[in-house]
Amino acid sequence: MKTLDITKLRHGTTLVKRGFAKMQKGGVIMDVVNAEHARIAEEAGAVAVMALERVPADIRAHGGVARMADPTIIQQIMDTVSIPVMAKVRIGHFVEAQALESLGVDMIDESEVLTPADPFYHVDKRQFTIPFVCGCRNLGEAVRRIWEGAAMIRTKGEAGTGNIIEAIRHQRMVTSMIRQLKEMDKNGLQRLAEEYSINYVNSLKTLTNIITVEDNTIIFEKYPYGTVKKEIIDILKEIKNIQRLPVVNFAAGGIATPADAAIMMQLGSDGVFVGSGIFKSEKPKKTAKAIVEAVANYDDPKVIATVSKGLGDAMNGIEIETIPKEQLLQERGW
Amino acid sequence: MMRFFKETKTKGSVNLIRQKPDLDKVDALIIPGGESTTISRTLVRSGLFETIRNRISDDTLAIMGTCAGCVLLAKTITDTTKERVTSLEAMDIEVQRNAFGRQKESFEHTLNFHGFSNPYTAVFIRAPVITKVGRDCEVLAKFDKKIVAARQHRFLALSFHPELTTDLRVHEYFLEMI
Question: What is the pTM of this model?
Answer without folding.
Answer: 0.95
